[in-house]
């Protein structure tokens, strides 16, 4: 073990005395954001209920929204509104305390961090506790974590992160359904998992397997389904943030040419100085999921520009499917998009009207990238 | 909660008496609750057709905006059943899988033609009290001659589709040829237009043309149920090519006892006729989940109000969160190295992205 890692482990040991669950939540089975949006749209209509922008809501919830290391705001103005009280009372699976509901919202909107021993309990298998904290928050088992890195290398680790999440989703399904006939009926394919885990390089992962895993991930990015329990006992992170966290763990393992961006106590070495292009590397464990997500989008593009896979190679195939996922990961960081997805679900459930959903969609349209015809 | 799984094994006496050393079996698994990946995979299949329909309308009907026609088209597209059928085979120890995607009914161009051509129908196709207008309904083929036209039409429609390749293939309507899957009619409808039959015909076609070897296995998912007569026909395919066929069909209801047990346990409740999750309020049957996802796909791509904008000289503006072929996010092609805007700090993405 390197001296640097030894020092950091000592720091983590010191952190272990800190209270656990500082920003993590174990509340599962509830979807606060959907219920809150439902209540607001029912009372105010779409144009007023969705009158806030991503920035205005985040400004209420994060103390320093422009900083990747922002603390959450404890006292929030909207919790005094009637819609919030209605949300707490009426939420299926509730009633819920206001603090629990806020914890859930912060978690689902990526406003929490991954400090070892503070937010995340470290377990073995990841060789580095800071990388472990990100990988564990993403709920990726060590064998999948390392295998995908073996397949992609650090050069394509941002793409690899999407497949690590896909494989983990499939592993969970396989664990929950063990009957072979039933698996066939449900299209839970153990062969995909076995083949992908057996592959020695990315050329050995077939287009079928990539497509299958990509579809599993895309489906979860397309639909707002939150509230599951992760294997850690914590609330499962939304898939886009899981992908970003895995990529962050890979980046930490790759090492830095300059100083490591975190102190031993999981605080950032450098102070954040603004989005002027000269930002120092992120201390991922101290950063919010939202900030890690933004870093991920940039890192993906950096990696894509650095190495152009040859046409028809396994890597090109892999890049193609990962690109489809990225287009979805790209946009979910914005609340307007999340709200449009939720509105689509609410409309289908006949909980809101078509014009309300259309309003949400219009607003999201203005922000998302158009697909060229 | 105990899941009720019903698996039907159809092995006819004829099959038992057949001279072959072994022959395939047809098994049909039923799915009620949304478990596993059937809805996700069929959602992906459906997206190919929604995208193709958008291309078709953009090419041929840009100026034909009449809301009622768009509603008819939307209804037809989201209600046409989808199927995804895989053929797995081994060559030199390597497993290969070809995935055949199919949409039930007529070719997309015929579907659009029926919606936009002729006079406006008196009743909406979604109303149970008002049967489909004759113009709309008469396109259902009842004779092999019409099927030939549909085969040609469907072949021409190939240009509309994107995303299909050597792994993911579109199962077209094929021209009549000697086949163990003879077209047959149930209640006046040509079952050859059922999506699972389009897919199985395509598989048979490729087997006959030695595109792939016989002796493999077929695994399919249908976004609805298959008719019992159809299973007997599938048995012929299984026997002729030594293939085992396993199909998953989605039912729109659960057995009464299972449904009541779910409600009694507090996991589910009825919202109208639909069984929904008590916590999330979302449908819990796979068929409903798929129907909702397809409705969303159609609404995002073909909603009349968003289409209206496209007729004013503006480009189409489908939302980006969807399956299927995607654009690459901005910056990759251009080589730009500008950091992603921080929407939390009020920075918005550039309008050209």
Please write out the topology:
The complex is a heterodimer of chains A (373) and B (353).
Chain A: H1 3-15, H2 32-44, H3 46-49, H4 54-61, H5 82-90, H6 98-108, H7 129-137, H8 142-152, H9 157-176, H10 180-186, H11 190-198, H12 207-222, H13 239-254, H14 289-306, H15 314-331, H16 335-348, H17 354-367
Chain B: E1 7-10, H1 13-17, E2 26-31, H2 38-60, H3 67-79, E3 82-91, E4 94-103, H4 108-116, H5 134-137, H6 144-156, E5 168-170, E6 185-186, E7 189-190, H7 195-208, E8 217-222, H8 228-240, E9 244-250, H9 256-264, E10 268-271, E11 274-277, H10 286-302, H11 304-310
Parallel strand pairs in B: 2-9, 4-5, 8-9
Antiparallel strand pairs in B: 1-2, 3-4, 3-8, 6-7, 10-11
User: Would you list the SSEs of chain B in sequence order as H and E?
Assistant: EHEHHEEHHHEEEHEHEHEEHH
Number of strands of chain A: 0
Number of structurally distinct domains of chain A: 2
Which range does the strand content of chain B fall in?
Answer: 15-25%
pLDDT below 50 for ≥5 consecutive residues: which ranges of chain A?
A: 1-21, 367-373
For the record, give the distance between the C-alpha atoms at the N and C termini of chain A, rounded to a whole number.
Answer: 53 Å
Q: Which radius of gyration of chain B do the C-alpha atoms yield?
A: 22 Å
User: pLDDT below 50 for ≥5 consecutive residues: which ranges of chain B?
Assistant: 1-21, 129-145, 309-335
Structural class of chain A: mainly alpha
- The N- and C-terminal alpha carbons of chain B lie at a distance of 48 Å
Instruction: Determine the fraction of residues in helical runs of chain B and give it as a percent range.
Output: 25-40%
Instruction: Please indicate the percent range of residues of chain A in DSSP E strands (runs of 2 or more).
Output: under 5%
Write down the overall mean pLDDT of chain A: 82
Strand order of the largest sheet of chain B: 1-2-9-8-3-4-5
Q: What's the number of extended β-strand segments of chain B?
A: 11
Structural class of chain B: alpha/beta
Largest sheet: number of strands, sense, barrel closure of chain B: 7 strands, mixed
Described by the principal axes of the CA atoms, the overall outline of chain B is globular
Radius of gyration of chain A: 21 Å
Q: How many structural domains can be distinguished in the coordinates of chain B? A: 2
The main pleated sheet of chain A reads as:
none
């Amino acid at each position: 073990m390197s001296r640097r890692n030894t020092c950091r482990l000592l720091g983590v040991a010191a952190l272990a005395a800190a209270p656990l669950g500082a920003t993590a939540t174990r509340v599962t089975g509830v979807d606060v954001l959907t219920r809150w949006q439902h209540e607001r749209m029912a009372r105010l209509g779409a144009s007023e209920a969705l009158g806030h922008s991503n920035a205005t809501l985040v400004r209420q919830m994060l103390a320093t929204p422009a900083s990747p290391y922002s603390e959450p705001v404890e006292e929030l103005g909207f919790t005094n509104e009637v819609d919030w009280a209605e949300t707490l009372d009426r939420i299926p699976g509730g009633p819920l305390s206001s603090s629990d509901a806020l914890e859930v919202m912060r978690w689902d909107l990526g406003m929490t961090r991954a400090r070892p021993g503070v937010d995340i309990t470290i377990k073995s298998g990841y060789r580095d506790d800071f990388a472990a904290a990100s990988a564990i928050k993403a709920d990726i088992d060590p064998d999948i974590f390392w295998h995908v890195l073996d397949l992609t290398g650090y050069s394509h680790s941002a793409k690899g992160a999407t497949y690590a999440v896909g494989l983990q989703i499939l592993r969970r399904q396989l664990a929950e359904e063990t009957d072979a006939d039933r698996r066939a009926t449900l299209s839970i394919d153990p062969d995909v998992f076995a083949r992908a885990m057996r592959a020695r390089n990315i050329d050995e992962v077939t287009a079928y397997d990539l497509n299958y895993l990509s579809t599993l991930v895309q489906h979860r990015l397309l639909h707002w389904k939150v509230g599951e329990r992760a294997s850690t006992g914590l609330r499962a992170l939304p898939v886009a943030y899981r992908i970003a966290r895995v990529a962050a763990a890979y980046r930490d393992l790759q090492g830095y040419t300059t100083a490591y961006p975190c102190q031993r106590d999981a605080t950032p070495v450098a102070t954040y100085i603004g989005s002027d292009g000269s930002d120092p590397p992120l201390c991922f464990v101290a950063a919010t999921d939202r900030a890690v997500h933004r870093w991920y989008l940039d890192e993906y593009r950096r990696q894509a520009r650095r190495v152009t896979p040859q046409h028809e190679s396994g890597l090109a195939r892999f890049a193609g499917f990962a690109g489809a996922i990225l287009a979805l990961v790209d946009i979910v960081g914005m609340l307007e998009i999340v709200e449009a997805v939720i509105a689509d679900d609410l409309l289908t459930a006949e909980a809101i009207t078509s014009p309300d959903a259309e309003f949400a969609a219009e607003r999201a349209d203005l922000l998302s990238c158009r697909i060229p015809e | 909660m105990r899941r009720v799984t019903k698996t039907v094994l159809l092995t006819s006496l004829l099959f038992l008496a057949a001279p072959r050393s072994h022959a395939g079996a047809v098994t049909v698994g039923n799915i009620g609750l949304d478990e596993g990946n059937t809805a996700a995979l069929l959602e992906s299949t459906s997206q190919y057709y929604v995208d193709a329909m958008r291309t078709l309308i953009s090419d041929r009907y840009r100026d034909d905006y009449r809301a009622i026609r768009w509603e008819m088209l939307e209804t037809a597209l989201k209600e046409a059943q989808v199927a995804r059928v895989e053929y797995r085979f081994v060559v030199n120890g390597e497993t290969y899988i070809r995935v055949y995607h199919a949409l039930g009914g007529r070719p997309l161009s015929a579907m659009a033609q029926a919606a936009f051509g002729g006079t406006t129908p008196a009743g909406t196709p979604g109303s149970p009290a008002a049967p489909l207008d004759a113009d709309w309904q008469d396109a259902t083929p009842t004779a092999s001659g019409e099927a030939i036209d549909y085969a040609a039409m469907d072949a021409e429609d190939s240009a509309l589709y994107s995303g299909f390749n050597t792994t993911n293939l579109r199962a077209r309507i094929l021209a009549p040829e000697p086949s163990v899957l003879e077209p047959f009619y149930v209640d006046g409808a040509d079952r050859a237009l059922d999506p699972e039959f389009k897919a199985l015909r395509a598989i048979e076609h490729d087997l006959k043309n030695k595109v792939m070897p016989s002796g493999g296995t077929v695994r399919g998912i249908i976004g609805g149920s298959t008719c019992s007569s159809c299973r007997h026909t599938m048995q012929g395919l299984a026997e002729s090519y030594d293939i085992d066929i396993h199909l998953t069909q989605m039912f729109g209801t659960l057995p009464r006892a299972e449904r009541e047990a779910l409600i009694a346990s507090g996991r589910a409740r009825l919202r109208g006729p639909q069984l929904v999750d008590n916590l999330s309020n979302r449908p819990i049957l796979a068929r409903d989940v798929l129907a909702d996802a397809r409705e969303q796909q159609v609404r995002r791509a073909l909603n009349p109000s968003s289409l209206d904008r496209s007729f004013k000289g503006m480009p189409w503006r489908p939302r980006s969160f969807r399956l299927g072929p995607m654009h690459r996010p901005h910056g990759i092609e251009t080589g730009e190295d500008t950091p992603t805007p921080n929407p939390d700090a009020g920075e918005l993405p550039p309008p050209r992205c």
